[in-house]
Amino acid sequence: MAASVSASTLLAPAPLPATPPAEKLPLAAVALGLLALLVAATAADPARARLSMYVALFLLSIGTLTWAALKFGRPPAGVRHDHLWQRASTSRGAIAWALGVALTGFYVVLYWFPAYLENLIRTLDPLSQLLRGKPADQWFLYGTFYTLAVLLMGGRALWKYRHSRYQLIRTGSVMFFQLGFSFLLPGLLLLLQKPEFYFSYFWPLKYDYLFPGTVSYLLRDGQALGVFMVFWGAVMSFLATPVLTYFFGKRWYCSWVCGCGGLAETAGDPYRHLADKSRAAWRWEVRLIYPILGFIILVTVLLWVAASGAVPAVQPLAEGLSKTYGFVIGSVFSGVIGVGFYPIMGARVWCRFGCPMAAYLGLLQKHFSRFRITTNGGQCISCGNCSNVCEMGIDVKQYAQRGEPIIRAACVGCGLCSTACPRGVLNLENGPRTGRYQASALIHSDSLRILS
C-alpha cells in the first residue's frame, strides 16, 4: 500500500544544508575578528586597542579568504542560487535586518558623531603616518575599512566566479582601482604635501571637483600638478566619459573603476538578488535619479555664476543648495542608505536611484552607445537565473524570452546575467548602432527554426 504524501509536504522547501565542518573554523575566525574589533573600539588603553585592531584585521582577512576558498573553490565552478531565499542573511530575515541596522548605525556615527570612533581612529595612526604623513582621521578609518571590504570580498568573488574570464578581470579591476587610485595614491599625494585627489572619481559623482572653490584651491599655487588635476577632472567628465561610454557603455566606469560599484560588486554580491524588479521600482528610479542629476548641474552652474560676481544675489542660494545636496545626497543617500540598506534592498540602491554619474552615463548609454546585451530567445529555458542576479532591477528574462537586445540606461554591464545563464543566451556586445534595438536576423531565424 503506497504511503500518502500531503500537498504541504511536497511543497515544503528543502531544509538548509548544515555548514561543513571545514568551513566552521574560518567562520569562527571571522567572528573572533569582529569581537576583537569591538575590543579595539572600547579599550581604554591605546596599546591594547591597537593590538586588538591588528588582530581583528588579521582574523577577518584570513577567515574570509579561507572560507571563500573552501566554500567556492572545492565544488565544481558555476553560479549557484541555492537557498538564497531561505537564509535569514540573504532573504531579509533577522540577520539581514540586524546587519542593515549595524551598517546604517556605523554610517550615522561616521558622518555626524565621529568622536565615538576615536579609539578605532587612533589605532590606525601608525599606518596613516606611514602612508600619508599625518595622524588618522575618520575618513582614513573609513577608507581602510572600505578598501579591506573590497579586497576581501573581491577575493570571495574571484573564487565564486573563477569559471568566467570576464568576471575575473572585472573583479580584479575594481580591486586594483580601489586599492591603488582610491586609497594608496591619495595618501601618497598627502605624504608629498600635495592636494588629496581621487583620480578615479569625476564630476558629477565627485561633485565638488568642478566647484569654483575646489578649482581655485587646486590652481592656487600655480603648480603643474594642480593644473593637471583640474584638467583631468574636466576632460574625464566631459570628453573621456562620452567617448568611452560610446564604445563600451557605462560598464567601463560603473563595473570596472568606480569605488561605489566596486563595493557593490564585491561586498554587495550576496544581496544582488534583492533588487526590486517591479515596474513601480523602475518608476521611482526615473523619478529620483534624473532630478538628482539636474540638481547637481543646477548647483554647479549657480556656484560658477556666483563666483563670477555677475549676480551677487545668487551666492547665498548657491551655497545653501550646495550644503543641502552634500547632506541629503552626498551623505544620507550615498552613504547611510546606499550601503546601509545592502542586506534589505540589494547592493545597488545608490547606483540605481541616486548616483548622478550613473544617470549621466545611463543617458549616454541608452541614446549614444554601441553597447548592448544581445539575446537568443530560441535558446532561453526561462530559468530566471539572469533576472535573479541582476542588481539593477532589470527583468532580464523577459528580454531573453522574446529574443530582444537589452538596452537599458540602468544596466551597468556587470555581465552576471550572461555568466549565470546555463544556455549561453545572453552576450555583452559593442556592436554597430544600426539595428541596435532589434534582434539580429540570425537570432530571429534560429528562433523560427526551433519553433517550427
TrEMBL record:
InterPro entries membership: 4Fe4S_Fe-S-bd, 4Fe4S_Fe_S_CS, Electron_Trans/Redox
Transmembrane intervals: 53-73, 94-113, 139-159, 171-192, 224-248, 288-313, 325-344
GO terms of molecular function: 4 iron, 4 sulfur cluster binding; metal ion binding
SUPFAM superfamilies tied to this protein: 4Fe-4S ferredoxins (SSF54862)
Residue stretches in coiled coil: none
Keyword Disulfide bond among UniProt keywords: no
UniProt cross-references to Gene3D superfamilies, sorted A to Z: 3.30.70.20
Keyword match Acetylation: no
Name of the protein described by the UniProt record: 4Fe-4S binding protein
